[in-house]
Specification:
16 strands; globular
Length: 378
């Protein structure tokens, strides 16, 4: 997540006429052979019942398949500020209980460490003046002031080089302070867009911005995302995986409703090179071939007993079974990303620490993928 690691912190078809004719020919031959053949004997030595005319035999039953007709979670995903959080058929709104386990799952779990505990990366309490998690600021671009944000020269070509709608009292990562990667996440409730910044620095804090754009805020990168789109951003986002910060955040309001209806975002310290869908980028440097690449999709195993968890943690854990956890960024520990909120019960959430990586499996999302360059699912 550091800046020098790429900004870390839904078939059937009828047979053709030729195939139908071929099938009838075969049936006729089968009937002739059955009529000419001697009666078969059963184990007691008596002749068995003559076979029925194949032309009047019932059609064979269709093969049974476990693949669902759709992977899209029923109902609309809980939105924010009157905006939908991406289309209903977005990858993060998938139900993945039926997805197959990857053949490499065991090796990946072993590479991470089966005993590695899972941390809630969001809280109510502060630590050294900061809360863990990514706050979401709501603004209306028709009335919100705009602030010019100077962007690092190396990322100017892939950033929004324009004024950014700015919250009156912005809450950054580390709220009430600015800490760690100092992300700023804002949702424009008028245009239903998200604005994501990384390493936001106030006027005067950054030498580059102070010299070239006095009085301006600075960020390593600024990204604007259309919350109504399934298109994968061609130039990435402020996460190392190229995935939206907002898509997988655990939010208090949805947990309070007793249902998280989307996949969760996860960070890990050791990432493999390359990316796998739905990720499009990576800052992974691990030389271990079993290390998980960005976009790896984990699922809490169905046999894991979560009944002993307290209410908030149990809702989050159930989402890990139903929708899974997607590796989106690099971090110092295995952790789930969410919003800080003073209403969280930290003692309750602490129960997530009882879950270990060994209780997860890596699933293959390929059956629900529609196309490269898109988050749309079947």
């Amino acid at each position: 997540m550091s800046r020098d690691r790429h900004l870390r912190r839904s078939r059937s078809g009828s047979p053709t006429g030729r195939r139908a004719l071929g099938a009838l020919t075969l049936i006729g031959v089968a009937g002739l052979l059955a009529a000419c053949a001697p009666a078969s004997r059963n184990s007691s030595g008596h002749g068995s019942t003559p076979a029925l005319d194949a032309s009047r035999a019932p059609a064979p039953a269709a093969p049974v398949t476990t693949r669902p007709t759709t992977y899209v979670t029923a109902g609309a995903r809980a939105g924010i500020g009157g905006c939908d959080l991406f289309p209903v058929d977005h990858a993060f709104h998938a139900s993945i209980a039926s997805l197959p386990v990857r053949s490499s799952s065991g090796a990946t779990i072993a590479a991470i460490g089966p005993s590695e505990t899972l941390l809630p990366g969001f809280s109510a309490a502060t630590w050294m003046g900061s809360r863990s998690g990514y706050p979401t600021n709501l603004i209306d671009s028709r009335t919100a002031p705009r602030s010019f944000v100077a962007v690092a020269s190396m990322y100017q070509s892939v950033s929004e080089n324009q004024s950014v709608p700015w919250p009156d009292d912005p809450r950054f990562e580390g709220w009430p302070d600015r800490a760690w990667d100092r992300h700023l996440l804002t949702v424009d409730t008028h245009r239903c867009e998200s604005w994501e910044l990384i390493n936001a620095q106030a006027p005067g804090e950054n030498v580059f911005a102070a010299l070239l754009h006095p009085g301006s805020w600075y960020a390593d990168r600024v990204v604007r995302l259309d919350l109504s789109s399934n298109t994968i951003p061609p130039t990435g986002t402020v996460t190392a995986s190229g995935l939206s910060m907002l898509a997988g955040l655990v939010r208090y309001d949805e947990v309070a409703s007793s249902r998280v209806d989307h996949a969760l975002s996860m960070v890990l310290p050791d990432i493999g090179a390359g990316a796998t869908w739905p990720a499009s980028r990576s800052d992974g440097r691990s030389t271990d071939p079993a290390a998980p690449p960005m976009g790896t999709w984990f699922r809490l195993r169905a046999d894991v007993d979560i009944s002993g968890l307290r209410p908030q943690a149990r809702v989050v854990a159930q989402a890990m079974k139903d929708h899974g956890v997607v590796l989106v960024d690099t971090g110092p520990h295995a952790a789930i990303s969410g919003e800080p909120d003073v209403r969280w019960d930290d003692a309750d959430l602490d129960g997530l620490r009882s879950l270990t990586i060994g209780q997860f499996e890596v699933v293959d999302p390929t059956p629900m993928k529609v196309a490269d360059g898109s988050y749309r699912i079947r």
